[in-house]
Amino acid sequence: MKGDLKSILRNSLNADELDLVIKSYDIIGDLGVIQIPEALSEHKRTIAEAVMQQHKHVKAVWRQSSPIRGPHRVRNLEWVGGEKLSQTVHRENGYTLKVDVQKCYFSPRLGAERMRIAGLVGDSEYVVNMFAGVGSYSIAIGKYSGAHKTVSIDINPVAVYYMKENILLNRLVGRIAPICGDARTTIADQLRNSVDRVLMPLPHEAFKYLDSAVAALRSPAGWIHYYEFAHARKNEDPVNAVKRKIVDCLEDFPVKVVEVNGRIVRQTGPNWYHIALDIHLEI
Ligand SMILES: C[S@@+](CC[C@H](N)C(=O)[O-])C[C@H]1O[C@@H](n2cnc3c(N)ncnc32)[C@H](O)[C@@H]1O
Fold it and tell me: Lesser CB count within 10 Å: N end or C end of the chain?
């Protein structure tokens, strides 16, 4: 039986408990990752079974037991059902991404944003992805653009292990160059004035690295794809607030802001938004 999670659980949970079930959850390859409120802890196995009933190919279910946190941007996961597997292969947009959900960041909700960025990359471009994770944006760029090379940096050695696997799986050896290290140090040591385009998919603190992104761009011009989580009340525009902040900040650099295009990637909570800015600079 396929149906929404609440209707599958209707015979196992009472009405008050059903109200607490969070309907939307992530399917990453053959894994389910779900939030289960504390008040439903005693039903966690039943909820896991319901997820596997809703998605027959799902082999293991993990409960998100902390927010995404720390330098590697991972969340604590508690195994709640199926086989005890945390490594999987996720398929999206015609490429495959191998990932261990316990040890690396990955969100299946950003597949459309990855394709949007890949569609902006021009032929022969030299790109740096400062916060590449398992290589999700870089693989999309390698597969769907004519980029010459995408240097892909991440500070989490496990993410870089999977990034290398993903480069092989998607036959992109030579097109994506994996580097394990800190993006700031790597750019300072190897990539000053070198690239046409910089990706900054670290929305909670990309701002701290804006100087490194600018330093990586080569003359005469280039693009930065900047991400940030922004709060906005009703009638406030979260995109404009981030735009103003970044344009102000760029006034301190020896660059000319040619164009800034902003958009909401997705809403992440009540009044919270994941914002993308595409910033065109003359160097
Ligand atoms: C939000 S995740 C995004 C990963 C990937 N771009 C994706 O969307 O799947 C941010 C990544 O940045 C990495 N990271 C955090 N600080 C870093 C730094 N200073 N230098 C390089 N990587 C860093 C984390 O390990 C994490 O994999």
Answer: N
pLDDT, mean of residues 111-128: 98
Q: For residue 278, what are the β-bridge partners?
A: 225, 261
Mean pLDDT of 165-184: 98
Q: HSE, CB side, 13 Å, CA atoms: give it for residue 83.
A: 9
Task: Name the residue at shortest CA distance from atom 16 of ligand 1.
Answer: 71
Report the residue among 202, 208, 266, 275 best suited for mutation to probe ligand 1: largest number of ligand atoms under 8 A from its CB. Answer: 202
Structure confidence by residue, pLDDT tens digits, 17-43: 999 999 889 999 999 999 999 999 999
Domains of the chain are 5-85 (3.30.300.110), 104-282 (3.40.50.150)
The residues, any chain, with a CB within 8 Å of residue 236's CB and separated by 6 or more, are: none
Q: What is the mean pLDDT of residues 51-76?
A: 95
Q: Could you tell me if the CB of 183 is within 6 A of ligand 1?
A: yes
Contact 127, 151 (CB under 8 A): yes
pLDDT at 2: 55
CB of 159 within 6 A of ligand 1: the answer is yes
Question: Are the beta carbons of 68 and 74 closer than 8 angstroms?
Answer: yes
Tell whether omega for the bond before 178 is within 30 degrees of 0, i.e. cis: no
Distance CA 224, CA 95 (A): 24
Closest atom of ligand 1 to 136 CA is: 9
pLDDT above 60 for 1: no
